[in-house]
Amino acid sequence: MTSYIELFGLIVLLMLPFLYESSHIFRYYFKFLIYYGIVSFNSIVLIPAFLFRPCDVRNLLWASTWCHRVTTLIGLRWELRGKEHLEKDRACIIVANHQSSLDVLGMFNIWHVMNKCTVVAKRELFYAWPFGLAAWLAGLIFIDRVRGEKARDTLNQVNSKIKKQNIKLWVFPEGTRRNTGELHNFKKGAFHMAIEEQIPILPVVFSSYCTFLNDKKKILNAGNIIITTLPAISTEGLTKNDLPELMESVHKLMSETFKQTSGEIVQRYASQAIKIKSNSAEQTDDGEDDNTTVNPSPPTTPKRVVETSSPACTTSCDLPKAGSVPTTSQQTKTPATSQAQDIVNRATQIETSAPSEYKDNIKTKRQTLVH
After folding, report:
1. Deepest in the core among 65, 109, 266, 289, taking most CB within 10 A?
2. CA distance 229 to 132
3. Are 66 and 46 in contact (CB under 8 A)?
4. Measured distance CA(140)–CA(118) in Å, rounded
5. DSSP β-ladder status, 117-122 and 92-96
6. Among 174, 175, 180, CA closest to 209
7. pLDDT of residue 111
8. Which of 158, 181, 180, 184 is nearest to 170 (CA)?
9. Residue-wise over 126-161: b if at least 16 C-beta within 10 A, else e?
10. According to the model, what pLDDT value does residue 370 have?
11. Distance of CA 33 to the CA centre of its chain
12. Quick check: pTM over 0.85?
């Protein structure tokens, strides 16, 4: 019986590389399994250490030191801009857009910059042990989103504490995570807290994940993300009457930054996808006739047109259709995130349709994005 189990295990191990390279669905679940698995394992290891200083936000620095290494394993790269705003030792309310559970991985990569920082999370996460228990011991604040009054009482208790101890409080004002390529409406809680204690709001913007993540189609490829920290917005002298205007101005500022950085990522991916396709076509042409003595002319690299009317505008980029080569006169004005979804799909098609001898080239290109 044991020998059959060992044989089955060996077959599974041998199948893993094939499934990883051939199936984007398997790769999607496998990467998230690595992510959640390592975070859960680190939670078990760190819980005894957290018990020496329970509910201390400095424990999150220990957690980030261990957990940020998952980034390399699943092929993501986080680029932080505006570090000078994030590293200041002051109390503030950080408001950030929320697209995926991968946001937490991005936070792990910049926690050493924030230093003393904690997060407002939904109460349901506390029951996801061992992560929930470790998060509570690390000082996370869990609120009951269904019972609004109880949630407000919890936040009011935290509000004075973060001001006295110069703690940064990270809030996702959209509430629910959505990877739709746009910022959604903000809830009032974070802005109420900032005005009540007269502490600044610090906007943090993650660029769109649409170039590498599609939850509906189960795609998670290697990817780049730009994290932009904007200058702090003062709330001194503001009252509750100024709340709608404050929320609108912060949302507009973050939305413009989101479009700008997402457009930049789309441009990078578009260039990379065209380069990979061009290199594959060039190698195929070189191997068509081994007996020829005439050196063929080098293939022309397809050109891509990118229009940007302003730094914060939607980027326009003409993606090549199947079987066609884009020209400089082709300009299709579509949202940057729609282009990103197209790039994700095309990258997957290239991986599955490319000859086996060129897959190493594709893997090499992907690995350049990893730490």
Report:
1. 266
2. 27
3. yes
4. 6
5. unpaired
6. 180
7. 93
8. 158
9. eeeebbbbbbbbbbbbbbeeeeeeebeebbeebbee
10. 38
11. 16
12. no
Residue 364, pLDDT > 70, answer: no
Residues 134, 46: contact at Cβ < 8 Å?
A: yes
SS in 3 state form for the chain? CHHHHHHHHHHHHHHHHHHHHHCHHHHHHHHHHHHHHHHHHHHHHHHHHHCCCCCCCCHHHHHHHHHCCHHHHHCEEEEEECHHHHCCCCCEEEEECCCCCHHHHHHHHHHHHHCCEEEEEEHHHHHCCCHHHHHHHCCCEEECCCCHHHHHHHHHHHHHHHHHCCCEEEECCCCCCCCCCCCCCCCCHHHHHHHHHCCCEEEEEECCCCCCEECCCCEECCEEEEEEECCCECCCCCCHHHHHHHHHHHHHHHHHHHHHHHHHHHHHHHHHHHHHHHHHHHHHHHCCCCCCCCCCCCCCCCCCCEECCCCCCCCEECCCCCCCCCCCCCCCCCCHHHHHHHHHHHHHHHHHHCCHHHHHHHHHHHHCCCC
Amino acid identity at 159: N
- Which of 95, 144, 106, 102 is closest to 122 using CA atoms? 144
Closest among 100, 346, 309, 115 to 209, alpha carbons compared: 100
Taking alpha carbons only, the member of 208, 224, 209, 186 closest to residue 93 is: 186
Distances (CA, A) of 3 to 6, 10, 11, 13: 5, 10, 12, 15
Output the pLDDT for position 362: 39
Displacement of CA 30 from its chain's centroid (Å): 17
pLDDT at res. 83: 93
Is the pLDDT at 369 greater than 50? The verdict is no
- Return the CA Rg of the chain: 24
CA distance 286 to 283: 5
pLDDT at 149 over 80: no
With 80 as the cut, is the pLDDT of residue 333 above it?
A: no
